[in-house]
Amino acid sequence: xxxxxxxxxxxxxxxxxxxxxxxxxxANEADDQYAIVQALLTPKLDIRGFVATHFGTNRxxxxxxxxxxxxxxxxxxxxxxxxxxxxxxxxxxxxxxxPVISEGAQFIxxxxxxxxxxxxxxxxFLGAITDLAAAYKAKPEIAGRLTAVWIGGGAYPHGGExxxxxxxxxxxNIVFGSDIPLWQVPRDxxxxxxxxxxxxxxxxxxxxAIGEYLFRQLEEFNMLPTHTLRWPPGESWxxxxxxxVSLLIDDQNFDYELRHAPVIRDDMGYDHPGTARQIRxxxxxxxxxxxxxxxxxxxxxxxLKSSE
Length: 308
Prior knowledge:
Elements (H helix, E strand, L loop, with lengths): L17 E7 L7 H9 L4 E8 L10 H15 L8 E3 L14 H10 L8 E5 L4 H9 L8 E5 L11 H4 L2 H8 L5 E4 L1 H4 L3 E3 H7 L4 H15 L13 E3 L3 H8 L6 E5 L2 E2 L5 E2 L6 E5 L4 H20 L2
Parallel strand pairs: 1-2, 1-4, 2-3, 4-5, 5-6, 6-12
Antiparallel strand pairs: 7-8, 9-12, 10-11
């Protein structure tokens, strides 16, 4: 447990804590950063390490390295660089003929196969699910030793175009066809946590170097001239990655349904043969809980750091 949590005004029972791997395409846009910070400030989560992954090759050939650098930047701003390992993950889609086991995929295998750990292991995926598919191909035994939470895929029942899925459809099919326990947060659900930039200016920006950075990098991204007329809206943002963290704090055990895992077509539509294993598919998330938890933890962190 990070030393800062010893000074928090509340404690988390030891038997409620979980091990967590955070797999993120952190440099893709501006909301992964919020999820990373919320995970770092959540005492229930024993973060075992971060894995940087790609966000496709349409914009750059170095998206994984950019994500790696962004994770490191956040850790530096929070004075946590010495506390957490960051691993390099996949640089692009999984090659099904000769899968590359990245440093990050190997870390997933190693953490899942530990025999000395007593806390359950969760791996959250905020982008393409390439590294989990590679880890599973290398060591299928991990299926019984972790639970995956994925922000990705189109709305049910039909599916459709979605960014994270589109960056590696084959990897998603490997995971969906595996025995890995999976909680999926599809596009229509991860779009629920919406905030205004005014709200972020008041509730995020004031809280130290990390609060300033979270707000500034989002505001700067919002102003990029390369955006379309439809996205982003201009004065609001969708915190689409944050549900993966909040569901580890409270899994909302009444807001999901068990579905047979679909087979995903190349056009990202879902086929439902009805014979596959079941996965947990979320129908909604609690946006108020997600954002207010982050705001409170940012303030607590700032006040504790300021008193050192």
